[in-house]
Every structure is written in C-alpha cells, then in structure tokens.
User: Fold this.
Amino acid sequence: MRFHERFAEKNRRYSGNSLAVFWIPGMILVGIIVMALLVIAIPVLRNPEYLAGAASDPVVFQAFLVTFLAGFCAVGILAITGTPLAYALSRTDAPWKGIVETLVDIPLVLPHTVAGLMVYLLFMSRGLLGAPLGEIGLTFEDAFPGIVAAMVFVSIPYYVNAVREGFGRVPVQLENVARSLGASPIRAFVSVTLPLTTRHIMYGALLAWGRAIGEFAAVIMIAYFPVVISTLIYYRFNTGGIAESQAIAFLLILLCLVLFFVFRFLTRRAGVYDDRS
Amino acid sequence: MIAVEEVSLTRGNFTLSRVSLKVPEGSYTVLMGPSGAGKTLLLECIGGFKKINGGTITVAGKEVTMLPPEKRSIGFMYQDYSLFPHLNVEENIAYGLKMKGIDSRERTDTVDMLLSSFSLSPLSRRYTGSLSGGEKQRVALARALATKPSALLLDEPFAALDPDARLSCMDEVKAIQKDNGLTILQVSHDRDEAYRLADQVVVMDKGVILQTGTPAEVFSYPNHPTVASLAGFENMLDGTTGVSEGGRTQLLIGKGSIFADGIFPGGARVLACIRARDIMLTDPAMVRDVPLNRIEGEVVSTVVTDQGYQVRFADPFSLTIDIPGNQLSKVYRPGDRVVALLAPEDVHIVRLPGSPVNGGSAS
Assistant:
C-alpha cells in the first residue's frame, strides 16, 4: 500500500463506537435488498428445475446476449461522446453551462415511459433522426440499434456526471504544465487528464451499463424485439407465471453480481491517483 | 530575456493594465505584490495559459504573444509543483522530452543526467505522492529544465516548504540558475526570498507595476505605500509636509513632528516610513539637548523577540521600536516616559496618491 493510500485509510476510519447510530437506520435499506434477493432466490433454489429450464432456454440465452451486448454498445457510444462532453463541462464557466447540465440530467428525472416516447419519436422510421438514418440502412424500430438508442438515452446522466466529477478533480495546472512541456491540448488531455480520471470513467461506465441493461419501458417502446432480458421477464411473468420469471430474474442477478464483482476486482487498482485533491 | 510590453487583460473585475517588464537574459527577477495583485495571472499570460487583450510578449528575442504554450519554450512551475501523480519521478522528467519527440536513447541519457545532477537517482522509480516537499521541487525543476526552455517561470516555488528546506532549496535554485545562465521570473511575497535570489525585483499591485529595481533599491527606497509595506517598514506614519530648510523637510504627524532628509512641497500628504531598528530609545534626562527628531512619549507595551525586544511607543504618535539583544542594559516597561531618537536620513518619504508631486526629491 502506498503512502497516500495508507494516509487516506487512516483519515477514513472511524475510531469511536457510535458508528452504530449510523449503521442501524442504514441496515434497514440493506435488509430490504437482502430480503428482496431472498424472495427471488429461495423459491428458485427450492425448485431448481425452473432454473435449469431457464439456463438451457435458447430464448433466455438470446435475451441475455442482446441485453449485455446492447449495454456494451451503449457504454461505448457514451464513452466516445460523453467523455468529451464531460470534459468540456468540467472546464468551462460559460453562462450556458447550467442549461447543458440540466439537459444532460433530463433522462434522470423523466418517467421511463416518457423517455421511451421521446426515443421512439426521435428514432422511429419517420422520426427526426430515424428517417435520415433509415436512408443509410440503420433502422431502430424493433431492431438492435433501437435498444442501444434507448439505453444510451437513459444512461447519459449517469456516465456524464460521474466522468465530469472526475475531470473536475484534475487541476488545470497539470494540463498547463504539460502544455509548457510541449504537449498539445489533445496530448495533454490524453497523457495527463484522461489517466487521472480512469477511476471515474470506469465508475461512470459501470453505472451507465447497469442502468442500460435494466431499462425496460424505454426499450419496449422503440424495440419490443429483439427481446431484452427485462422484456422477457415481464413477458414470462404475464404468460408463464411467477416461477418462470423468478428463475430468469435469479439468473440475471447472479450474472450481474459476478460481473460487477469481477469488474471491481480487476479495476480496484486502476486510477487510484484521481483521488488526489 | 523576457520582455512584456503593455500587456492588458481583463478577467471579471480584475484588470492587468498595460503591464511592462523586462527580465534580462540570464537574470533572476522576483515579482512581488500582495495577494490578488495579479502576479500569477501575469505569469500565466507569459506562459500562454491566458489570452491577453493587448500588448506583446517576447522570449529570447522571439515574439510569442500569439503562440500556444507548447510553442513558447517557457518552463513553468506552480507552487504545488503540479507533478503528474500517475507517473514516477523518471517518467515525470522524461515527459517533456517525449512530447517533443526526442528518441528514447537521447531521452534516457538526458533523464539520467538530470536525475544524477538533481540527486534524484535513488528516487527515480518512486511515485510523486511519496516525495517530500524538497524532493518534489527538485523533480519539478528537473522536469522543467529537461526540455532546455528559454526561460523559467516559477509561481511561489518555496511557499510550500518548511523553513529549513526553504533556505537550502533557494540556494540550490540560485546555484542552478547561475550555473546554467537561466532567465527566471519568480512570483513571491517574501522579502527574504527576493534578497536571497533576485537580481531584480518588480512590485505590482491591482494589475499595475509599481516599482522595479534591485532588491536594495526597492526595499530601501519604496515609491508607493504598497511597496513600502512589502519592504517591511514597521512604522508607516501618515503625515503632511511642512516647511523645508537646510535640505530637510518637516513632517507633521499626529500631535508631533519629525524632520526627514529631502525637499518636498508643503501641504502634501505623505507616508513617513521608518524601520523599527533605526529608532533609538533612551531616558528623557539623558538627551535633553538633541535638537532634531527627539520625540518624547510613553511606552505602551513590550514584546520579546528573537533579536531582543520590541517596544510600542505612543503620544505624540505611535512608533514600533526594536531594541537589540546587546542593548538590554535597560529594560523599559509600559508607562515609562522615554525619548525616541531618529536620524532624518532614516525617514523615507512616500507620497500618497493624489498629493502634489512637483518639487520633491526623496532621500
């Protein structure tokens, strides 16, 4: 453990006993999450035939594949477009900055059905973006790009806000020094600012990905097919009953837990320097 | 040489107004001023980080006004050194060489040479977060010098160091500057730094250059109240000029008066600047016949200092007086009646803004 990590540890740990006062109300929330996991897990584990059925069902496999792939595509698009936006927002004091920040936050406050309606109207075959993109062969209605578009739309604030926060923590003086040493603005960004924001970028990507794969309302409004996992769970809930949907939900939870854990484990050391203040 | 001519910049409520200064080739100039004077802003303008509204900036004979920072060949060092925390010492020093496309063999040679000359070789693989203040400063200097800049801009480079490290770091920087013939412009608010390092001192306040000269000139003969305050005059007394005769001018201060060398027009508002160490304190009975600048008053308070002790004196006006440790034969206490003696040549007069300026000649 490096010196500054040890120092941060020392400053973070609480030495008194009264932390219990904070734990007790906090545990109510944790308890609700644990109970919610148990009401899914216990029936599934009692009747493993449903779990085996779901795990071997090609439709379920297909839905997982589409969901996770669309999630990765959405995060990729956000990384390419959201990272520069987050940087620009973090480095400007322009009077219109607040307007852009509010616009970025809009998907956060809208009901998901409204977000879905907006995505549909924008990307439908006669939509403002859907029509010209349709001309070049990119269709969104009931198609994979439609799922990605809905996922991108609802995850924008999660990614942009997390990354903007990271850029804000990199002092502009570091970029100035890099420039004085011969780096162009882009090279200073790539060689200094970006590495120091790695952790925030990864955190933003994880949040955005989680938000994207969980999206239901916005996705079904533009693309009911190909079926994503949340659509499939809802469909099986209505047609096959609770037991069937529970098994798929349990699989999703299991996969997400494993993926999140692996991600956090692999990235635990990445970008530790962006906590520099 | 760095030449700044008529540089102007407005940033919110703050304005740099037609600032001009010259840092001669191979010299060390210290830019001083109170907080908010615009020192760092001026440095950032020279470095190219802030776009100026008017004027020109020339570095080593080349006009750089419109050039981006990476094309100016100016090294820049901030108060916190702004080392790249994701790179180790060696990579920090090599950064500029890499950006300039120097091939890896030459890069390694230059970095090795700098690591060794800055005594950083044992730290080459260390990350910057674990370095001491002095080590960080050496890395920042080595990094700035690696690309052989035409000039170096330092923004309060010693402010973050503890007192012991400060002195040795200052000596190191001065030695490096002399050995390499570097042109350095450094921001500071510390007079001792200026005395120790500077060939030239430039004082600015509120975006305007007030005075330029050698440290001795600027601190002994300030021409503005702000410069006098930076020069460390413990006594800065508001007064009005009275009659002048025999090369001296009477100054009316509070309920009393003193004489200062120099002829000044009467009725002008001035600041009489007197160093605490230049005033002598004695018993009234001892100096009954002194005709000039014999000020009788009362001791208000005393404070022990590392050089002796300091007396606050009042009535007819307040004075701060340093009593050196080797003159402790008589210790004054609050309430004692005393006489302060003062040579007219030790009274430096600064005209206050708005007062008449014609006909005066300061000491």
Q: What stands out?
A: Residues 358-363 of chain B have pLDDT under 50 and may be disordered. Residues 235-351 of chain B form a domain with the OB fold (Dihydrolipoamide Acetyltransferase, E2P) fold (CATH 2.40.50.100). The longest strand of chain B covers residues 294-305.
